[in-house]
Amino acid sequence: MGKILLEIRGIEYSQTQSGSYVLDLKEVNGRRRMPILIGGFEAQAIALALEKMVPNRPMTHDLFVSFFSIVNARVKEIIIHEFNEGLFKANIVVVHEGIEVEVDARSSDAVAIAVRFNAPIYTTEKVLQEVSHISEKREDDSDMDDFEDDFEPYDGGEGDMEEVPLEELEEQLSEALENEDYEKATRLRDEINKRKK
Hints:
alpha+beta, 8-stranded mixed sheet, 8 strands, globular
């Protein structure tokens, strides 16, 4: 099976399915993109790991990191290997004592794990052909700047954050993390990063 390396381009609030997000994956050194519809919890888990935000208590995906460290296992890669009736199937390739094992997983969970382990994300040519579309961006646009460059963060109907002073946003971010409101924390982090550019 030929593997195609993917990179995470961003996470966008879904305009068609309430409470859902679109994880935008793009082939490395190519223009094809692979959007995956994911839930809010999974979107938060991926975004927090991408931005190196540390919640007060470990999230479910963080437990994998701790557990794998204890048993001396590592995640080698993930492979999104099938697309069927609107659903993606993925395998997490785990290495333990020199033995590779493939673990079946939802694609969103596999990506959340991959981000935490800095593991590469792959798909197959067949899957990419079935779901990809050509980016209208320049062909050389393959850098992974903050995903705010490509997507507007959803503000959850909380109004215009641009009116709130930066210091207050930072206080709200600390409070959101303490209250484990990761969706709000992600939106606040996006606004803070946008202002600091």
